[in-house]
Amino acid sequence: MSSRPLHQPEDPNSPADDSDSDLDLDIQELDPITTSSPASREGYQDRYTRDERRSAHIPLRNLRMGGLRGPGNRNRGYGDLGRRRDTESEDLRGLLADEHDGRSSRDDEARSRSAQDDAPLLSSRDRKRRPSMDAAISSMSRLSSRVRLPSFLSSSSASIALPADNESKEEEHDPASSRTVSIGMPQATRFPPNAVSNAKYTPFSFLPRTLYNEFSFFFNMYFLLVALSQAIPALRIGYLSTYIVPLAGVLAITLGKEAYDDIDRRRRDSEANSEGYTVLVFDRMGMGDVDRYRAKRKLKSMTKSKSKRNSLVQPDRLSDIQEEENSLGGTGLRASPTSSVREVTKKARDLKVGDVLKLNKDQRLPADVVILKSYTNETTSDQDIPSEHEDEELLLDTVSDSPLDKSNEPADDERESTSKASNTPSADATGVGETFIRTDQLDGETDWKLRLGSPLTQQLEPAEFTRLRIVAGKPDKKVNEFLGTVELLPKRGGYDTDVPKPDPVGEAPDGSSENESAPLTIDNTAWANTILASNATTLAAVIYTGPQTRSALSTSASRSKTGLLEYEINSLTKILCALTLTLSIVLVALEGFEHVAGVAWYVKIMRFLVLFSTIVPISLRVNLDMGKTVYSSFIQKDHGIEGAVVRTSTIPEELGRIEYLLSDKTGTLTQNEMEMKKIHVGTVSYANEAMDEVASYIKQGFSVSAPTDASQPSVLITPSSTFAVSTTSTATRTRREIGSRVRDVVLALGICHNVTPTMEEENGETITSYQASSPDEIAIVKWTEAVGLRLIHRDRKGMLLESVETGRPAVRVRILEVFPFTSEGKRMGIIVQFLDGTETSPVPNIDAGEIWFFQKGADTVMTSIVASNDWLDEETANMAREGLRTLVVGRKKMPVAQYKEFASQYREASVSLNNRDTGMANVVAHYLEKDLELLGVTGVEDKLQKDVKPSLELLRNAGIKIWMLTGDKVETARCVAVSAKLVARGQYIHTIAKLKRKDEAQDHLDFLRSKTDSCLLIDGESLSFFLTHFRNDFISMAVKLPTVVACRCSPTQKADVALLIREYTKKRICCIGDGGNDVSMIQAADVGVGIVGKEGRQASLAADFSITQFCHLTKLLVWHGRNSYKRSAKLAQFVIHRGLIISVCQTMYSIAIKFEPEGLYKDWLLVGYATVYTMAPVFSLVLDRDVDEKLANLYPELYKELTTGDSLSYKTFFIWVLVSIYQGGIIQGCSQLLTEVDGPRMVAVSFTVLVLNELIMVAFEITTWHPIMIFSLVGTLLVYVGSIPFLGGYFDLKFMLTPGFFWRVAAIGAISLIPPYLFKLARRAYKPPSYRKVQGI
Fold first, then answer.
1. Angle between helices 1020-1029 and 1031-1038 (to 10 degrees)
2. What confidence tier does 650 reach under pLDDT thresholds 50, 70, 90?
3. Residue 239's pLDDT band (boundaries 50, 70, 90)?
4. 665 among the known binding-site residues?
5. Annotation-wise, does 496 bind a ligand?
6. How many CA atoms lie within 13 A of 1324 on its CB side?
7. Are 28 and 122 in contact (CB under 8 A)?
8. Which residues are catalytic, by number?
9. Mean pLDDT of the chain
10. Which of 209, 208, 204, 246 shows the shortest CA–CA distance to 224?
């Protein structure tokens, strides 16, 4: 055997050089030399030079077969290869001759590659030339005992990881820069974790933020200062705990509620973050795995005499090459996979950038991903375990469609490329790499979106995913934009069987492999919180996680919400504090600033401020916070709104102050389920029960009898088939005509769509489901099945429909062309060739069947396309008034010659470089869209949520202005606004769309100012234009309109609208939604309500209140909101009255004792008065109600009154101040006059009357008695009477047992209570409140 090196560049023309040695396997090719060896650079260079001579050989088989694997040569067989060898041999010899010149470039490439490899340097021992692949494997086995083999050939598998030094240098990724993601491997930079968080606080920020929020209120700051003043001996009055304990209690309750709410949010977030997902983990291949790729037999040429190797004539080894290629799919040596794949389950929060997810139907995406590969579940086994002949097919087979007419019809792959160019799904929705996603939780759109795997990754085996690198842009909130690239790194050693190779002529002269790359667009992505809708398995790589996902970036940070009632009470507190300061200064001034007895005048003022601190009662916050807890409990325990959850328990009163309701559409007002409700065929309209008649027509029209001869095919129905009428019926000519029209329109609806049927297993039963980008189309196809014509198969080439009655195929068509629906065109069309079942040749024939063009679309565009008629406009208007989404259906028969002419022109336009889309549209308009036969009009309803119509009507009557903000299309939003009765019957809808000019915007504003009773329908683009150029003018006009519908709104725009209304009107805003795209709007509102949606709970988790249905909102607002606000308003005013009256008593006492700052009620009396002696009766007011629930719903106008804030206003506040001054003055003044100025008798009479006065005043204020109220009043009175024997230190107990005590108490109490009560009765008689009016009806 020759010891000559494998390749000598000096002798490129040597016959021996073109031998089977090009099939040899060199271990250096499989694992390049690395820099991990401790050898010096000089030794490395020498060794590399020697190794290069031995290992730089180019496998010629790769070069030869590269042409076969190239996309342009897939149809060539081996005969073609042989014919081209003469022309290519010269190029190949030149390519080899140039190899020597390219040595330095290979040297550089080897160094760069070795820097990324962790394999050790291999021995530089000279090796003999190995004549066969068996020799290669055996030599490798012998080498394993003498050298350390590369890691991928070691006997154990280890997870791929970056070197330790890279890990130690891992840096935080800059979110403002683009990112390079290594698939299935650790990343060089650190990305944020994939955790969702709706929490408001962290463990470190909780105390600072909550304390800041609390003491930002003047109310709490005032009491803090009062409490701190008691640390100064000169200012101390009574027990220190009297002032410290209440403040600490208030803070503890408030902070406890905030902590509980936030812990609850974290618990819910933890549930979402703990959802399990299947992740592919990649391990390197071990030595044992290589055995599977060992060659089982030698090639024929290897068995020939070795003397032939020295022959100057090189034999044709084409048979060897073919034999070797055949062996790849069988027992021969195949290229070893880069890694082995196993599946693990990871929690959503543990997912990292670069992870490969395995997703199935109806799974929510936990992060932003790029789709790598997708395949239907029916072929899962084939995808998971590569076919033995997969590589062979990849090299040799060409899947192509037979053209209908090679001269006049575009090839199928050309049609497919045209379809891809327009970014529309092919007819075969289950095609390779296609999957549908639902994005209503992200952008509010109801249409499903088609997503595709990149062709570069779709054909790649999962084991090769570790060779992928994805370059993606910086995190962005734009959900409809994405630019990136995917790069496939060359396989180490050997050739790549997964990706077609370029032609050898185009390969680099030095034989190095080029990285393959492909662009990535929005069509290759799926964002977090979208749902996989296809019955397919999708492999996707995580690109953005956690706070960097599109969904999170479109969501504003959660904020602490404070109710309007809090601000109003804060304002009243400032008034009371000013009153306290004024009173203190006046009392000191009356005594005189000069008249001091060892005490400075300013110290007296401070002591008076402390004494009068009860004017601003600390118990007010305690009572209000406890009241909020009670209201929240009422909401959650209400069986009428089962499933309601209060997530922010600090703002239930806000539910009673709402003036603007901003609602999402999809999933909130609608169920996102379409239903075919009506069809009109020109003379007759069918709906509801009349659909049974349609079914009878279809039963007759598509009844296909079984052939008598089993060898004969069934006769299929075409549009030209005669309508069969039952012989038993008395069929008139009119009935036959109607039946024929019904059959034609149902046939058109069954064919003109982009729907694909899929089979699914549910509970052991096979169920047919449909998938398409538009739910409208699915609704129509389901309706055709319900009336008797079922779609059972569809692919890129054709469709098959069967009769539901007979279960036999009724219609078979070949798809010639599809014109998908676009937002601009508002129509979709299809050209099909009907097959009647008599075809004898399996080869498609353009002349063997009728060709028809079907089209359906919006009435606005179809009116000019269909033939003239006298009923279309009227019927579409009638359906639109009912809120139905109308589609006009037409058809046209095409002669074969006309179709061929159209196909030629259309193909020519589709390859034009200039104005391609316009040219294609012009061809379609010229040949197809003229004088279509009008078949009928369909009406599809977007099914509303339960009781949406009466709920919206009730809310409007309650004075709430309703805005609908949706990401869906203009037409869809308009239909839902009408069907949901957002727009009253006959109300004008002013539509503004695609606005770009300021003069047009001004005209719209002027018109709307003159017509303030109209509904405004505006798209997101126009809304953004108005907010940029006419911000104040637009919002001042829009808030006056009864209804505004904004469509095509981004999540950020929704939040901006909510903030704008809040800032401009200063009114309370409620936002309600169910999707992740509504979270920003919900958090921007004063009150955010989330609906637990079918697809996710993002809105529910981020909201202040969570409900399960939209109709529950009416009870939440009109009943619970109204009660909460009125109760809190009454409670707040009564607590202020309770504190103010005791301060007035203190003032009277201070005046009587010559303006000395001495306390009237000290220590326990002061604490007991605010707690055990009055708290329970006063707090029982949270159970009061003025009307029952039935009346509240019957008269929603009662809710409208609350928006004015009359229940707690300056007017009602000062009325209570006057009552307090009167009662306090009478109680203290009469007590001093009838007993003594200072002493235990006066204190006993005064305090007893004070307690009884409060209990009776509570009874006066109660509208509807509750058993707890009676118990608290009677119980408190008994507690006070029972505690009197223990109050000897404050009272004259002997005096309290005499009749004189009782008549004094009775007299003072009567003078104190009767006048205010008479005033209340007179006021009620003169101007009765609204609730008294409705109670009297």
1. 120
2. confident
3. low
4. yes
5. no
6. 12
7. yes
8. 664
9. 76
10. 246
Q: Is pLDDT at 616 greater than 60 in this prediction?
A: yes
Q: Please indicate if the annotation marks 1235 as binding a ligand.
A: no
For residues 1010 and 444, what is the distance between their CA atoms, to the nearest angstrom? 32
Task: Tell me the two tokens of residue 401.
Answer: 């469609």
1077 annotated as belonging to a binding site for a ligand: yes
Average pLDDT value for residue range 942-960: 92
- Tell which wins on pLDDT, 729 or 1231: 1231
Burial letters 115-128, b for 16+ CB under 10 A, else e: eebbbbbbebeebe
966: annotated binding-site residue? yes
The predicted model gives 502-508 an average pLDDT of 41
Label the pairing between strands 961-965 and 658-663: parallel
**How many helices (H) and strands (E) are present in the chain, helices listed first?**
47, 35
Please answer whether residues 883 and 979 qualify as being in contact, where contact means their C-beta atoms are separated by less than 8 angstroms: yes
CB 519 within 8 A of CB 88: no
**What count of Cα atoms within 13 Å lies in the side-chain half-sphere of residue 667?**
33
- CA quadruple 153, 159, 160, 163: dihedral sign: negative
What pLDDT, on the 0 to 100 scale, is given for residue 732?
67
CA distances from 524 to 18, 360, 436, 528, 544 (A): 45, 17, 11, 14, 14
Q: How far is CA 1240 from CA 36, 709, 1069, 1154, in A?
A: 98, 120, 55, 18
* Distance, first Cα to last Cα, the chain: 117
Written as six digits, the tokens of 602 are: 């300013």
User: Is the per-residue pLDDT at 104 higher than 70?
Assistant: no
- 966 HSE (CA, 13 A, CB side): 27
Cα dist from 6 to 53, 130, 593, 714, whole Å: 8, 9, 116, 67
pLDDT exceeds cutoff 80 at 105? no
The distance from CA 1061 to its chain's CA centroid, rounded to whole angstroms, is 25
856 among annotated binding-site residues: yes
Q: Is 664 annotated as a binding residue?
A: yes
- At residue 1035, the 3 state secondary structure works out as helix
760 is in an annotated binding site: no
Rg (Cα) of the chain, in Å, rounded?
Answer: 42
What is the DSSP code string of 46-65?
HHHHHHHHHH----HHHHHH
CB proximity list for 562: less than 8 A, separation 6 or greater: 213, 650, 651
> 670-680 and 171-172: which strand pairing?
unpaired
Phi-psi region of 328 (alpha: psi -120 to 50; beta: other; left: phi over 0): alpha
Name every residue whose Cβ is closer than 8 Å to that of residue 602 and which is 6 or more positions away in sequence: none
Strand segments, DSSP code E, in 200-351 are: 276-284, 339-347
Beta-ladder partners of 991: 1017
Identity of residue 587 = L
Reported as a single tens digit per residue, the pLDDT across 1163-1214 is 788 888 888 899 899 999 999 998 999 999 999 999 988 888 888 889 999 9
Phi, psi of 830 (to 5 degrees): -155, 140
Give Cα 883 distance to the centre of its chain: 27
CB 519 within 8 A of CB 331: no
> For residue 1120, what is the DSSP state?
I
Nearest to 160 by CA among 26, 356, 333, 350: 356
Residue 777 assigned as binding residue: yes
Phi-psi region of 444 (alpha: psi -120 to 50; beta: other; left: phi over 0): left
Residue 1045's closest CA among 1098, 1145, 972? 972
Give the dihedral sign, CA 1227/1229/1231/1237.
positive
User: Any binding-site annotation on 967?
Assistant: yes
Does 917 appear as a known binding residue?
no
What length is written for the chain?
Answer: 1337
pLDDT tens digits along 421-463: 333 333 333 445 788 898 877 776 767 788 888 989 988 989 9
Looking at 360-515, which runs of residues are DSSP E strands?
368-376, 434-438, 449-452, 468-472, 484-488
Residues 160, 463 contacting (CB under 8 angstroms): no
